[in-house]
Design goal:
11 strands, Aldolase_TIM, TIM Barrel, 2 domains, 8-stranded parallel β-sheet, alpha/beta, oxidoreductase, 348 residues, 37% helix, NMO
């Protein structure tokens, strides 16, 4: 991917943060300011993807990205497994005064229809994580002039993406907040730092020819300079933007993020996939409980998470956050982007 082709002023992707934080307003203002804004569309229906993209286009003529989760192709849990997992949540139903309804598969969105909605929306960039995008979709995207960006957590994953004909690769270090882009949903986390992953990929003859985007633990200008100087074509930042004015982050989530030092941990308890979030009551107490596979666990706990917001409580929320420390920005995304790059040489 050529950043010159996108016409970005800054080598920055504002990360897709599905489930609420990514809003059309945040996407548009990020792009208008000179970064690449992103729609986190993983949990959106095809019609919702269209609505979100149309809203972004109303507010910017600049490039933006739409991001999806590649299906994990795991078997849906059995009714008995769902029953056992649901029983584990009984105490929280009482505490939150909410009733978790019965759930049944299929739990994955219709990915083919989501992809078609993205292609119809014609963003400048179609990004994805959790594996490989079928090659026919990459070809369709390229035929529409859409750049395709995958996500890797290891050198081997990055090589597979490169062979899959992506235009650029987001290298997601273990410091990153939110879901880990690991291809194998059942694998343990490789726990490779962003800096080491970038360096390892740049040593590979195939990968050093592909634009590499560093993601994970990048919170300030010094972090950005370190990654760009090491050879990254751009950086991707999410946590730093969670408390911006335009983000859809809930009030209890914002409170949890307001601490200068945020104690995070890798966990499967909220969704069934490994993700990094701030420790809270639910994360700590569910470690030894029965956890369904992704995305069934995500569907099951969604009712508790929604009730937690309604009760103005951070105890049962998936408080996705990277490991970076320091007080987060609470003004506009535009001012944050300008502040971040005030002292960063424009190399691209």
């Amino acid at each position: 991917m050529s950043l010159t082709r996108l016409g970005l002023r800054y080598p920055l992707i504002v990360a897709p943060m599905a489930g609420g934080p990514s809003t059309p307003k945040l996407t548009a203002i990020s792009s208008n300011t000179g970064a690449l804004g992103s729609i986190g569309a993983a949990y959106l229906t095809p019609n919702q993807i269209k609505i979100a993209a149309d809203e972004v286009k109303k507010n910017t003529q600049k490039p933006f990205a739409i991001n999806l989760f590649v299906p994990s192709n795991t078997k849906d849990p059995t009714p008995n497994q769902i029953h056992i997992a649901k029983e584990e949540l009984k105490p929280y139903e009482q505490q939150l005064h909410v009733k978790i309804p019965d759930i049944q598969g299929p739990f994955d969105h219709d990915f083919d229809q989501q992809v078609e909605a993205v292609l119809d929306a014609r963003p400048s960039v179609f990004s994805f994580c959790f594996g490989l995008l079928p090659k026919e979709y990459i070809k369709k995207a390229h035929d529409e002039g859409i750049l395709v960006v995958g996500t890797a957590t290891t050198v081997d994953e990055a090589i597979l993406l490169c062979k899959n004909n992506v235009d650029a690769i987001v290298l997601q270090g273990v410091e990153a907040g939110g879901h880990r882009g690991i291809f194998d949903v059942q694998a343990e986390d490789p726990q490779i730092s962003t800096f080491n992953l970038l360096n390892d990929c740049l040593k590979n003859k195939m990968l050093c020819k592909v634009p590499l985007i560093a993601a994970g633990g990048i919170m300030n200008s010094n972090h950005i300079k370190k990654m760009l100087n090491a050879g990254a074509s751009a950086v991707q930042m999410g946590t730093a933007f969670l408390t911006c004015t335009e983000a859809g982050t809930s009030a209890p989530y914002r409170r949890a993020l307001s601490k200068e030092s945020r104690d995070t941990e890798l966990t499967r308890v909220f969704s069934g996939r490994i993700a990094r979030g701030i420790k809270n009551k639910f994360l700590n107490e569910m470690k030894t409980k029965n956890i369904l596979s992704f995305p069934a666990q995500n569907t099951l706990t969604r009712f508790l998470r929604n009730a937690s917001v309604q009760n103005d409580s951070e105890d049962y929320l998936s408080l996705w956050s990277g490991t970076g420390e320091g007080t987060l920005w609470t003004g506009s995304a535009e001012d944050l982007i300008k502040d971040l790059f005030d002292n960063v040489p424009n190399k691209h």
